[in-house]
């Protein structure tokens, strides 16, 4: 896997130019560079339980809370993923700035990473099912979800779908071009403030009460950074 280390904001902008001419690149930000690319359902302690069984019980109970007429397992799994259920989906985005947000938002004492993937193809949702990918050559497929939630819309979400939840996306399992952009820990705070200025923050990526509360909490945590217009900028 090719690795690119960024040390300045200028490095970040220069690297983004490389991905500008195609929409095939997908991005994922992780705030700890040591984390592997495998879904929540494949990580301890969730890996002890069948993710398909968890999803079955989630569907039985979630119907009372769903506002839209969501029918397919693809749509329902996307909602479950974005509301915290351990699934075999792994979040990616079409927007590198969104990935940068997640790479810089936590673990300030550790380097982060933006993974960049150019998949050779996407899953045909009409012929494939999430729990039985028939294309054995493509053990990790890419799924473009419908706009089943405001978070998916605002985050320009995509998912990698892993035939086994513990299966990592890496040089052995990839079907396309995979790169890692290293975000040095010293750059995280400056990058996070820049992203907020560009409109990428908790408020825009999580358009609900949780996002609003986190956004205002972040402003309060960094009170000394803001000038006297702090109250007006909220």
SSE arrangement:
Blueprint: E1 2-6, H1 9-16, E2 26-30, H2 51-62, H3 73-82, E3 89-93, H4 96-104, E4 112-119, E5 140-143, H5 150-154, E6 157-162, E7 176-183, H6 188-197, H7 202-205, H8 209-221, H9 230-233
Parallel strand pairs: 1-7
Antiparallel strand pairs: 2-4, 3-6, 4-7, 5-6
Morphology: globular
Unreliable segments of 5+ consecutive residues: none
Provide the structure class: alpha+beta
The radius of gyration over CA amounts to 18 Å
Report the sheet-strand fraction.
Answer: 15-25%
Q: Give the rounded overall mean pLDDT.
A: 87
Provide the succession of SSEs: EHEHHEHEEHEEHHHH
DSSP strand tally:
7
User: Count of helices?
Assistant: 9
- Spatial arrangement of strands, main beta sheet: 1-7-4-2
Calculate the terminal CA-CA distance, rounded to whole Å: 41 Å
Largest sheet: 4 strands, mixed
Percentage of helical residues?
25-40%
Describe the structure.
This protein is of the alpha+beta class and 234 residues long. It has nine helices and seven strands. Helix 4 (96-104) crosses helix 6. The longest helix has 13 residues, at 209-221. The protein is globular and about 50 Å long. The model has no long low-confidence stretch (mean pLDDT 87).
């Amino acid at each position: 896997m090719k690795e690119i280390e960024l040390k300045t904001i200028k490095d970040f902008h220069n690297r983004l130019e490389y991905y500008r001419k195609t929409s095939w690149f997908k991005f994922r930000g992780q705030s700890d560079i040591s984390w592997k690319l495998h879904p929540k359902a494949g990580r301890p302690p969730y890996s002890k339980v069948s993710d398909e069984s968890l999803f079955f019980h989630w569907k039985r109970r979630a119907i009372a809370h769903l506002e839209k007429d969501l029918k397919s397992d693809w749509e329902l799994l996307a909602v479950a993923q974005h509301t915290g259920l351990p699934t075999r989906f792994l979040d990616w985005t079409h927007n590198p700035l969104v990935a940068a947000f997640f790479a810089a938002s936590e673990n300030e004492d550790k380097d982060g990473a933006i993974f960049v993937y150019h998949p050779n193809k996407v899953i045909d949702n009409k012929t494939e099912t999430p729990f039985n990918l028939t294309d054995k050559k493509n053990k990790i497929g890419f799924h473009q979800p419908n706009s089943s939630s405001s978070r998916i819309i605002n985050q320009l979400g995509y998912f990698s779908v892993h035939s086994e939840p513990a299966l990592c996306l890496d040089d052995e399992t990839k079907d396309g071009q995979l790169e890692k952009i290293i975000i040095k820990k010293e750059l995280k705070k400056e990058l996070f403030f820049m992203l907020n200025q560009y409109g990428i923050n908790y408020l825009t990526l999580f358009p609900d009460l949780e996002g609003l509360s986190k956004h205002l909490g972040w402003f309060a945590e960094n009170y000394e950074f803001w000038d006297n217009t702090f109250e007006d900028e909220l």
